Automatic annotation (TrEMBL):
Keywords: Calcium, Lyase, Secreted, Signal. It catalyses: Eliminative cleavage of (1->4)-alpha-D-galacturonan to give oligosaccharides with 4-deoxy-alpha-D-galact-4-enuronosyl groups at their non-reducing ends. InterPro entries: ConA-like_dom_sf, Pectate_lyase_PlyH/PlyE-like, Pectin_lyas_fold, Pectin_lyase_fold/virulence, TAT_signal. The keyword Cytoplasm does not apply. It is found in: Secreted. Its EC number is 4.2.2.2. Belongs to the polysaccharide lyase 3 family. It is an enzyme of class 4 (lyase). Residues 214-272 are annotated as: Disordered. The keyword Signal applies. This is pectate lyase. One of its GO terms (molecular function) is pectate lyase activity.
């Protein structure tokens, strides 16, 4: 275990001398005051001055005192609670943080590297099984690179992840847990993460690989203790203020046309993902009335709209009035709660690069009609489209990948409705849940045709629930076509 850091007053002196013209003095002070820190440190945060460097994505995060100020995630029922910092362009680096598991339950708590989306990252986590696991995470697909036992996960431990090229290595308290090859994107931000757990985090630092001392400890994991009067890690330096850099999309947009095939085989949408013409941060919800053509601008949350997790109650990037049309828009990450439709609305060629809470939520009355025509969505940890109001939603000529559910009729809203969804000419890739979910007891219907499922040989196309208005989890009562509530036949679905 490294020696304790110097007093916070000394560390603040390093921060105060962090101007470019004083680089030599800073380097000297770091060498004297923090012997194990690298002069090339890219980022560090001890949370003494708040958590303004971090973007929240789910969970209940707050600053608390545990000898010093720490960042705490307290919501144990949150499936994925994360905060992100740094640059999306970061590639080869070492990130470490102090982690203290308060309640692991059946979950985990740890540190992430190369987070290229809200649910795509490498992470090293303390788990409820008493282990530290190095994992590659892509949506709900989790690959364990390696693991090692950890004594007393409820104590403070230093977790470090090195990412260099395709090699990913994890350490706990200086001891190597595992190392292996990874196939996720080669750049991304850092993160602090929990899943169905509560934990505290402190003393985060990021260093370019090769700049700091090499680690060559055996694969064991001794318990770390956090002094009550000092910060737990020995590698603190000046705090940086990173700004997330948005990256452009892939290929340019072609004109969207429906492709109704007369045969049973679905006609797959052939439109490529568009390339963003400009990046536009959104700090407050944008109201839309009439018709708005975004010209393939990429909009992404910033400040209060900086979340891309599954927390309920987030604000949307766009709020559409009754009858509004929004077209040719890209929603980047973080996407917060995407788009809200207050009444009838139309979304044409709208693209979600990484779905936040939901891609879109439909809230109109019993006679409302909503249309999603063209576009696509990626990376939805849970739902893509949430139907809370009444009326009929039509989703056509759409492509979706790496998601939990394409559509869900709200199963436990305080005000319930009879709802209908029509899904037509949709290509589904890498689904991890089901296609649509409806409430049979409220008379919901799902009419489904020309769906192509790529990468799976089977999928629950239409799942029926008994909904409620009490907020309780709805009960699943069946799945599959029945001609009344789930209206489709086997010939309407093609598996590839």
């Amino acid at each position: 275990m490294p020696s304790a850091t110097p007093s916070r007053r000394r560390r603040r002196l390093v921060v105060g001398l962090g101007a470019a013209g004083a680089a030599g003095a800073v380097t000297a002070l770091v060498a004297i005051l923090v012997p194990s820190a690298s002069a090339g440190t890219q980022f560090s945060d001890d949370f003494e001055n708040g958590a303004g460097n971090w973007t929240k994505s789910g969970g209940d995060w707050s600053l608390v005192s545990d000898g010093s100020k720490v960042y705490k995630q307290a919501k144990t029922e949150s499936e994925l609670a994360r905060v992100f910092a740094g640059e999306t362009s970061w590639t080869n680096y070492s990130v470490e943080a102090k982690v203290k598991a308060l309640d692991l339950g059946s979950g985990l708590a740890g540190v992430a590297a190369r987070a290229s989306g809200s649910s795509t990252m490498y992470r090293l986590a303390l788990t409820s099984a008493g282990k530290a696991e190095l994992q590659a995470v892509k949506g709900s697909a989790i690959t364990t690179i390696g693991s090692a036992p950890v004594s007393n996960p409820a104590a403070w431990h230093t977790l470090k992840v090195d990412v260099s090229g395709s090699t990913i290595t994890g350490y706990v308290d200086g001891a190597k847990v595992a190392s292996g090859a990874g196939a996720l994107p080669g750049t991304g931000r850092i993160g602090l993460v929990t899943s169905y757990a509560a934990a505290e985090f402190d003393d985060v630092s990021v260093n370019p690989l090769g700049a700091g001392p090499a680690t060559s400890a055996p694969a064991a994991t001794p318990t770390a203790t956090k002094p009550a009067t000092a910060s737990p890690t020995a590698t603190k330096t000046a705090t940086a203020s990173p700004t997330a850099t948005k990256t452009a999309g892939a290929t340019p947009t072609a004109t969207k046309t429906a492709a109704p095939a007369p045969t049973a085989a679905p006609a797959a949408p052939s439109v490529a993902w568009p390339k963003a013409t400009v990046d536009k941060p959104v700090t407050a919800t944008i109201p839309v009335s009439g018709t708005v053509d975004g010209g393939n601008a990429r909009y992404f949350g910033s400040g209060a709209l900086g979340g891309d997790g599954q927390d309920e109650g987030q604000d949307p990037l766009f709020k559409l009035a009754d009858g509004a049309v929004l077209k040719n828009v890209i929603l980047g990450a973080p996407a917060a709660d995407g788009i809200h439709c207050s009444g009838s609305c139309t979304l044409i060629n709208v693209w979600w690069e990484n779905v936040g809470e939901d891609a879109a939520t439909f809230k109109g009355g019993a006679s409302a009609t909503y249309t999603v025509d063209g576009g696509g969505a990626k990376g939805a940890d849970d739902k893509v489209f949430q139907h809370n109001g009444g009326g009929t939603l039509t989703i056509k000529n759409f492509q979706v990948s790496d998601f939990g559910k394409l559509y869900r009729s709200c199963g436990n809203c305080s005000t319930q409705h009879k709802r209908a969804v029509v899904v037509q000419n949709v290509v589904v890739t890498a689904p991890v849940g089901s296609l649509v979910g409806i409430n049979q007891n409220f008379g919901d219907t799902a009419t489904i045709s020309k769906v192509t499922v790529v990468g799976k040989k089977s999928l629950d196309i239409c799942v029926k629930f008994t909904g409620n208005n009490t907020g309780k989890e709805p009960t699943k009562i069946g799945a599959g076509p029945d001609g009344t509530f789930c209206k489709y036949t086997e010939s309407d679905i093609t598996f590839k």
